[in-house]
UniProtKB/TrEMBL annotation:
This is Aldehyde dehydrogenase (NAD+). Keywords: Oxidoreductase. It holds the Pfam family Aldedh. PROSITE patterns: ALDEHYDE_DEHYDR_CYS (PS00070). It is an enzyme of class 1 (oxidoreductase). Its EC number is 1.2.1.3. It comes from Hydrogenophaga palleronii.
């Protein structure tokens, strides 16, 4: 029975109701979380405010950094335990679950060292004036976290917010709470004061909505679907609360005929297979220069037939999807592809060891997907790669930019001039040349344009979003 974490204490929800925790590999219920409501959010926001006004606002950046570093070490010591929790809760293969825990270590480590490097400016102004700027924390920050990378997303938003001097109220996805509740316990051990980090579980439309509307919340960061991002922004707009939104993508992998194909292939596969395709930055569209299209699809098809989904403990290429509705969503996209005459190049398999009650999807490579088809426009959030051919650079740019999203793009070419031209012309928050994802990179600012959202998380840049700039003008005669 997993409880809310408020004021450094494990507490029941006001409703006393619970929600089931389901193992995606089997469909079995193995634990419960609290079904909280607005009263629990109110208690968490009060605890956070009390902490902020009482002690946290007076801590120095160096003190906060030391606490974060201590927490980073504790997470490292408990990485296997956290990975095991995540493996069962989210169905992640062992290696992915461990990578997530280690990424959390890095986020806390990075922000532990970054907070005391954040400073304002002095500005030359009129004679007799000195003008300076300070970067001040917002105060109480709200964080709505999705289920696909709970630890990583918690690390990047909560790590940055704390380092910048804020306190946090976190609403994890109802499908993935357990690892974060354990991290909150480790934060108590690290010495974070009561109220500094609070976690309230429950449904988005109940708890997430209450957090977005709460007048005591000074900033909201949200990662999830565009639909909910809109709701969050609308709720926050009522009281002019600033919002950072990370809403997913339809990442193009753009491969020119001069690319190093041996180098590109493993990246192309991993970018859609990692976390069973449930990744906002997934490379879910494959754009290939026409002369390379058939040979590349042949090699890629071969690789896809070798891919295996199966129980997380087997550490295969993919685990199950997070929940039944996500599996049905992926099946729906594939059924529509078939109905619309979109050909499948190759499909991997679900291992025989996988329980028939688990939420598995076989990785699938589709070809000649029309640019305006749902499969080329919407996030499937499953292991489905849509391939299409292009004729030249202009054509590639047109297709790459022809979705509502703009989060991450990959370009594969040996031509140095083209590398820069493409980086400039593709509309995305991150463009990778001859790689994809750069290994995660906590140091690299991340976020989107268009419907992928706004604001930046990760890297030093995130600290600007978790602070407000104050200008002080002193007239000294
Ligand atoms: P979602 O947007 O519904 O959920 C994300 C978070 O928002 C969860 O914590 C959820 O509880 C909360 N939430 C839901 N409704 C809310 C509301 N009305 N007010 C406040 N918070 C609310 O995403 P999902 O249902 O988990 O997945 C649906 C689709 O969203 C996926 O198929 C995928 O396309 C996309 N998605 C994107 C990301 C990403 O990293 N960008 C992550 C998860 C899901």
């Amino acid at each position: 029975m997993a409880l809310n974490h408020i004021h450094n204490t494990a507490v029941r929800s006001a409703s006393g109701q619970t929600l089931p925790v389901i193992d995606p590999a089997t469909g079995e219920v193995y634990d419960t979380i609290e079904r909280s409501n607005a009263a629990d959010i109110d208690a968490a926001v009060r605890a956070a405010r009390e902490c902020y006004e009482g002690t946290w606002a007076r801590t120095t950046a160096a003190e906060r950094g030391r606490l974060l570093m201590k927490l980073s070490r504790l997470v490292a010591e408990h990485a296997d335990e956290l990975a095991a929790i995540e493996q069962r809760d989210c169905g992640k293969p062992v290696a992915q679950a461990k990578a997530d825990a280690l990424a959390l270590v890095r986020y806390f480590e990075f922000y532990a060292g970054a907070g005391d490097k954040l400073h304002g400016d002095t500005i030359p102004y009129l004679d007799g004036y000195s003008v300076l700027t300070w970067r001040e924390p917002h105060g109480v920050t709200g964080h709505v976290v999705p289920w696909n990378y709970p630890m990583q997303i918690f690390g990047r938003c909560v790590g940055g917010a704390l380092a910048a001097g804020n306190v946090c109220v976190v609403k994890p996805s109802e499908d993935a709470c357990l690892s974060l509740l354990r991290v909150a316990e480790l934060a108590v051990e690290a010495g974070f004061p009561a109220g500094c980090i609070n976690i309230v579980t429950g449904y988005g439309h109940e708890v997430g909505d209450a957090l977005a509307r709460h007048p005591g919340v000074d900033h909201i960061s949200f990662t999830g679907s565009p639909r909910v991002g809109t709701l969050i922004q609308q709720a926050a707009a009522e009281r002019h609360c600033p919002v950072t939104l990370e809403l997913g993508g339809k990442g193009p992998q753009i491969v020119f005929a001069d690319a190093d194909i041996d180098a590109a292939l493993p990246f192309i596969v991993n970018a859609i297979v990692q976390n069973s395709g449930q990744t906002c930055s997934a490379g879910s569209r494959l754009l290939v220069e026409r002369s390379l299209y058939e040979p590349l699809l042949e090699r890629l098809g071969q690789r896809f037939t070798e891919l295996r989904a199966g129980p997380p403990a087997m550490n295969l290429d993919l685990g199950p999807l997070i929940r039944q509705s996500q599996m049905e969503r992926v099946q729906g996209f594939l059924a529509q592809a078939e109905a619309d005459g979109i050909a499948t190049v190759a499909q991997g398999r679900v291992a025989p060891e996988a329980a028939s009650t688990g939420y598995y999807a076989a990785p699938t490579l589709l070809r000649d997907v029309p640019v305006d088809h749902r499969l080329a426009q919407e996030e499937v959030f499953g292991p489905v790669l849509s391939a299409m051919a292009f004729d030249d650079e202009d054509h590639a740019v047109r297709i790459a930019n022809a979705t509502p999203f703009g989060l991450v793009a990959g370009v594969w070419t040996r031509d140095g001039g083209r590398q820069f031209r493409m980086a400039k012309r593709v509309r995305a928050g991150q463009v990778f040349i001859n790689n994809y994802g750069a290994g995660g990179g906590v140091e690299l600012p991340f976020g989107g344009v268009k419907s992928s959202g706004h604001g930046r998380e990760k890297g030093f840049e995130a600290l600007y979003g978790f602070t407000v700039l104050k200008t002080i003008a002193i007239k000294h005669g």
